[in-house]
Amino acid sequence: MILQHKEEETELLKEMVDLKSDLQSIHVNLNEQRNRSYNLKRVKLDLNQQSTEAGALSTQPESLFPKHRSQMEASTANLHQSILQRHAIKEELRDDEIAVALW
Predict the structure, then answer these.
(1) In Å, what is the CA distance from 11 to each residue of 46, 60, 92, 97?
(2) Distance, CA of 82 to chain centre
(3) FRET partner for 95 with CA separation of 20 to 30 A, picked from 13, 30, 54, 59?
């Protein structure tokens, strides 16, 4: 009887770790999407503003819109940071799973 409860508790703890992992991944994904959406909206607004100021688009958009490149680079840096966060979360959860298994 006690052994059954112990096994059930172990399974529930494993399930809890899996659910925490899923939730953290979703949270990281949500933040990535928010940042991307915000950056794209800023780019759109800047493009609209600069196109009205310039009157027409240049044939070399990089020279006309230099700050968009830095925004894209910042977005890429945010993506790299979120990938590192996911890796850290997975390592932490793996350690929790090992602790649960040993318990």
Answers:
(1) 52, 60, 18, 11
(2) 5
(3) 30
Helix %, strand %, coil % of the chain (to 5): 90, 0, 10
Q: Quick check: 98 and 11 in contact, CB under 8 A? A: no
Tokens 């939730």 locate to: 23
Element (H, E) at 59: none
The reported pTM is: 0.47
Question: Where does residue 60 fall: left (phi above 0), alpha (psi -120 to 50 degrees), or beta otherwise?
Answer: beta
Q: Give the model confidence (pLDDT) of 55-86 as tens digits.
A: 654 555 555 555 566 666 666 777 767 777 77
The helix (run of H) or strand (run of E) holding residue 45 is: helix 2-54
Phi, psi torsion values for 65, nearest 5 degrees: -125, 65
